[in-house]
């Protein structure tokens, strides 16, 4: 085997001083009427007279009877694809099917299917006014495992949009055009945003270009102040109406559009002739608030609207690709939904049970807790992820180990510094210092707050690659997992040129048991 078993006690001399050592249950109540528990948001929109013309989600079915495909993933190992559907009709996505298909490789989300029956699916966005970073100027596709969460207690994955990522459909069916009325909502991660243009979901131009004021009507989420903005420092829900993000009637400020950053955020936008509205709330509980409800903006070109009916996700209308965010589900309707209909949809969303509780796969990596990470490689199961100064190694830790070594093998779990769906590990002994990789090796360094550091210090938990415990995928090198090799820490794959990328015992070396901390 490539990893130098014989050197285990040479490299990190023993640290021991002594060797001893869903379907939604219940009823949704709206306006005094009870709805069948198996309804989805689009059943509610249909009942309100404003049916969905597009329904996108990687997390759950949006109709009570929907049992078709939610999304498609493509794996790197052999470029084959797999459609992922719900566990049951109307239920949560079958994340286990994705995990099993993508085991040992990486997967991208290639298609987000349209559950409305209109085939308004989202695929890799083509170049437009701006080009994306992928081949041919297309945008990147999202890593399929970068946004793990649970819905109703079942694991699911959202769509993690890093800058450069984008989805689009320029040839839609039934989506509002011109000044026709429409509504839409989306659930985002309210903690994942930036000020780049433009993390949008909704109606856009059919040629991926800026066709002038009023040629878009999409939900925007982020803290851009390039156009409009609201109270505080953001992020805000706004409307991207082309050549402007609007928080209200004015081109710039609306004091009634609050900064809003719920971990799971419901963002709502709707528009009809000379009338539109922004609404929002916490997707985990409570109702919706209205942040704007009135006439079209007092700038030329937005009344009447000239909507074109394409659909975008994660990008601006002209394929601006500078924004980031995370999308879980969203729909677009035909007709202007009533507030009561949207309120019932929000109740359905809250009852669905979006949560980060087991975003780590239910393995105990709960932010705020302290853990030790034990190796699972046969012959090395007395070793833990540990640091010696800035060097991250594995060390044998026992009850007789020094308190320093116990602390150096204990890690406080933090919400991922660069992605709150994932985790970071702060040293129990050295507050402010985090496990991070640099040139693929792991180190303990102080958080400098920069984006390189926060990315390098963020790891996305997955079921252990050898069937035990947890594997930790590097958030910015999605083909690499935290590995021990020759008793030092790395992020490794099985195809790199480095010795630590050896395929020998790889699955064991990247699987860790989350254990009670040696130093609580
Ligand atoms: O309206 C804001 C942005 O401006 C649009 O998303 C984009 O098409 C243009 O650059």
Describe the structure.
The protein is mainly beta. It has 7 helices and 34 strands. The protein has a 10-stranded antiparallel β-sheet with strand order 5-4-6-7-11-20-13-14-15-16, with helices on one face. Helix 2 (41-47) packs antiparallel against helix 4. Mean pLDDT is 90; it is low at 1-37. Residues 197-198, 210, 240, 242-245, 316-318, 320 line the site of alpha-L-arabinofuranose (AHR). Alpha-L-arabinofuranose binds next to loops.
Short synopsis of the structure:
With 520 residues, this protein is mainly β.
Largest sheet: 10 strands, antiparallel
Number of helices: 7
Number of strands: 34
Helix content: under 10%
Q: For the terminal residues, how far apart are their CA atoms?
A: 35 Å
Runs with pLDDT <50, length 5+? 1-37
- The shape, in one word, is elongated
Strand percentage: 25-35%
| Order of strands, widest sheet | 5-4-6-7-11-20-13-14-15-16
Radius of gyration: 24 Å
What hetero molecules are in the model? alpha-L-arabinofuranose
The secondary-structure class comes to mainly beta
- The average pLDDT is 90
Secondary structure topology:
Layout: H1 8-11, E1 28-30, E2 33-35, H2 41-47, E3 52-57, E4 71-75, E5 81-84, H3 95-102, E6 107-112, E7 122-124, E8 148-151, E9 154-157, E10 159-161, E11 167-169, E12 182-188, E13 200-204, E14 217-222, E15 236-240, E16 245-246, E17 265-272, E18 275-282, E19 288-294, E20 310-313, E21 325-333, H4 339-352, E22 354-355, E23 370-375, E24 383-388, E25 391-396, H5 403-408, E26 411-415, E27 423-427, E28 433-438, E29 441-446, H6 451-456, E30 459-463, E31 470-474, E32 477-485, E33 488-492, H7 506-509, E34 512-515
Antiparallel strand pairs: 1-2, 3-21, 4-5, 4-6, 6-7, 7-11, 8-9, 8-22, 10-21, 11-20, 12-17, 12-21, 13-14, 13-20, 14-15, 15-16, 17-18, 18-19, 23-26, 23-34, 24-25, 26-27, 28-29, 30-31, 31-32, 32-33
């Amino acid at each position: 085997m490539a990893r130098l078993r014989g050197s285990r006690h040479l490299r990190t001399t023993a640290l021991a001083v002594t060797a001893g050592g869903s379907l939604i249950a219940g009823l949704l109540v709206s306006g005094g009427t009870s709805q069948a528990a198996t309804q989805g948001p689009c059943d509610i929109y249909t009942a309100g007279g404003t049916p969905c013309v597009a329904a996108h989600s990687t997390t759950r079915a949006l109709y009570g009877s929907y049992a078709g495909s939610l999304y498609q993933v493509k794996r790197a190992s052999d470029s084959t694809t797999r459609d992922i559907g719900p566990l049951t009709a109307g239920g949560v996505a079958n994340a286990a099917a994705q995990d099993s298909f993508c085991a040992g490789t990486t997967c991208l989300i290639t298609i987000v299917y349209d559950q409305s029956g209109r085939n308004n699916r989202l695929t890799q966005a083509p170049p437009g006014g701006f080009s994306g970073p992928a081949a041919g100027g297309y945008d990147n596709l999202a890593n399929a495992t970068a946004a793990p969460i649970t819905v109703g207690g079942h694991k699911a994955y959202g769509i993690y949009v890093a800058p450069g990522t984008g989805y689009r459909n320029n040839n839609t069916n039934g989506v509002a055009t011109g000044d026709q009325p429409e509504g839409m909502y989306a659930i985002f991660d309210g903690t994942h945003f930036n000020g780049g243009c433009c993390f949008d979901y909704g109606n856009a131009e059919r040629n991926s270009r800026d066709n002038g004021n009023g040629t878009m009507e999409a939900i925007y989420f982020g803290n851009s102040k390039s156009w409009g903005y609201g109270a505080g420092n953001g992020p805000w829900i706004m409307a991207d109406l082309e050549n402007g993000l609007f928080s209200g009637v004015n081109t710039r400020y609306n004091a009634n559009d609050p900064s809003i950053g719920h971990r799971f955020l419901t963002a709502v936008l709707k528009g009809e002739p000379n009338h539109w509205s922004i609404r929002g709330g916490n997707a985990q509980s409570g109702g919706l608030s209205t942040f704007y409800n009135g006439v079209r903006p007092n700038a030329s070109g937005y009344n009447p609207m000239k909507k074109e009916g394409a659909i975008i996700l994660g990008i601006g209308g002209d394929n601006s690709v500078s924004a980031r965010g995370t999308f879980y589900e969203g729909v677009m309707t035909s007709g202007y939904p009533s507030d009561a209909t949207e309120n019932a949809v929000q109740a359905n969303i809250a009852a669905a049970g979006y949560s980060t509780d087991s975003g780590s796969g239910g393995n105990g990596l709960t932010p705020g807790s302290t853990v030790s990470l034990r190796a699972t490689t046969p012959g090395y199961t007395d070793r833990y992820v540990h640091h010696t100064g800035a060097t991250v190694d594995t060390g044998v830790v026992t009850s007789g180990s020094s308190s320093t070594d116990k602390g150096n093998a204990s890690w406080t779990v933090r919400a991922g510094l660069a992605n709150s769906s994932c985790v970071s590990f702060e040293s129990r002994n050295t507050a402010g210092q985090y496990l991070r990789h640099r040139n693929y090796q792991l180190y303990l360094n102080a958080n400098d707050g920069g984006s390189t550091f926060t990315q390098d210090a963020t790891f996305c938990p997955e079921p252990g690659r050898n069937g035990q415990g947890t594997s930790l995928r590097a958030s910015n090198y999605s083909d690499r997992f935290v590995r021990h090799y020759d008793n030092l820490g790395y992020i490794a794959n099985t195809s790199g040129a480095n010795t630590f990328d050896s395929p020998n015992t790889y699955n064991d070396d990247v699987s860790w048991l989350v254990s009670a901390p040696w130093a609580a």
